[in-house]
Amino acid sequence: MSLDEGHKIELMYGLAGGALGWGVSPHFRCASLLVAPKFLGKEGRLYLLTYVLAAVYDGPITNMRHNLDEVIRSVGCTVELQINHSRQIWKVSTAPLRAVLHDMVGGRTLNAETRNVSQAFAGLNEQVASEAGYGVRRPRRAQGQRTPSTQQLYEQKTKLRCKCECDFSAQLVVQV
Asked: What is the mean pLDDT of each run of 10 residues along the chain (176 residues)?
């Protein structure tokens, strides 16, 4: 039998007590013989059923409950690991974008790029704003007219410059 030491000792004491009772007392023999038919009756079956249910609850049902607790703990641990890994993957995958945004918010890169663009277009802005070399001043805007865009002004000045250059070239040819 696969019993632990405590149960083996209790079983030994019970058998020894039963043998001693049978050997010494006629009342014990009579009572034990009358107990056997009692177990076959209604109360006996109820007692045996209770004993069997207690044994089943102590064995497989307790084991199932323990296993269910382990499943719940395992699923909880797995979900927590997935959440942590998802968080780490998100941080790693967005790190370059965050670095760029951090630099832009910090203003160092954005201000440097803005300065570079402004310096690159400074000559063009001066040319658009300048009236030199065109021979014709910018016409005043009449009321109700909208202000021409920078692109329109640049196109107009380029056409005027070409006309002015052509007139100047024609004058040189005539003078030579």
From this structure: 85 92 88 79 82 83 91 93 93 88 70 78 74 57 70 76 57 48
Same domain, 74 and 98: yes
Residues 157 and 135: beta-carbon distance below 8 Å: no
Residue 156, C-beta contacts closer than 8 angstroms, at least 6 positions apart = 148
Task: Specify whether the CB–CB gap between 128 and 153 falls below 8 A.
Answer: yes
Its pTM surpasses 0.85: no
CA 98 to chain centre: 17
Which residues form the domain of 158?
A: 150-176
Q: How far apart are CA 53 and CA 46, in angstroms?
A: 10
**For 57-107, where are the alpha helices, taking DSSP H only?**
62-106
- Count of structural domains within the chain: 3
